Amino acid sequence: MRINNVGLNLGQTTNNPFKTSRNSTTNPFQNVSFEGNTLPYADVFVGGIESHKANKLKMIASSVMGSMTKLTSAFEPIVNFVNRVREGISNAWTYATNKNLFNLPGEEACKKVMSTDIVDIGKGIAHSASDLGKVLDKDALEVGKEISSKISSKMELFGNGISEAWSSMINSVKISRAPHASKEMPVEDLKAMWIELNAAAEREAA
Amino acid sequence: MNKKIAEIIDALAVHEDNSSIQVLEELGTNSADNEIREYTSRALVKKNMHDSLKVVIINQGKGINDLSPSVAMSTINEILSLKDKSEVIKILDDTISMHSDEGVKENARSVKSLLALS
Asked: Which of A52, A157, A181, A182 could form a disulfide with B7 if both were Cys (CB 3.0 to 4.6 A apart)?
């Protein structure tokens, strides 16, 4: 069965409780008794036709007043309904305002987070950041030391290589520009030249 | 052999300072290069001095006693080519008579025989 069909049937079969009987052909005061509810001084109007009309109006007025008192019982269910709705709304509001909305899974975590002062949260974040910074700083320091030592050793080797290459080049220049060995040269100078040549030969061989 | 070293050896060979002999012995005869040892030995013989001839005759592994035949033969040929052989014969005789090593004595005896035949 489809919902649209259900709605259509309900609309057709449900009576509107607020629908007036103004257009109805039935008399709402049909079964109401007017005894004991007549207006006082209703019979002050005297006369032939006029008294007859006055009596008729008196009867209508009396019936209206009487029906008002009698109809309180007829309106009672509606009043109760309104009261119930109003009470229900009030209860719902009270429930909503007094109900702990965090009675859910993870309530404690939510309570903890929501009840923590924003300053404390800031301190916690700062503390965590500080710890992280310390770890990173320490690691970075160690990494820096390691890199520095490696670079230093490499540069030392590189420097030694440069130094050796430089001295070799200088000696080569010295040897190439050195005067030809002759007997006029001191023996010590000839010896020094020979030693230098031997060292250059060893470097080239290495 | 390096041209510069050859020039140094030649300069030391004709140098008047006797300390040149020590330099030739220290750097030349102890060199690992056969050419340098050979060239140095010939230079020491050319000097034709007592100290220089003694280096190539009485020392084991140097001059005529070198383990390299080319070095030894070159030294012997240079000795044979000397004009004045008096100093070398004197040293050879002293070596044959007084040296403690029989190998050195035998080499000195052979060189002296070659000098006698030349």
From this structure: A181
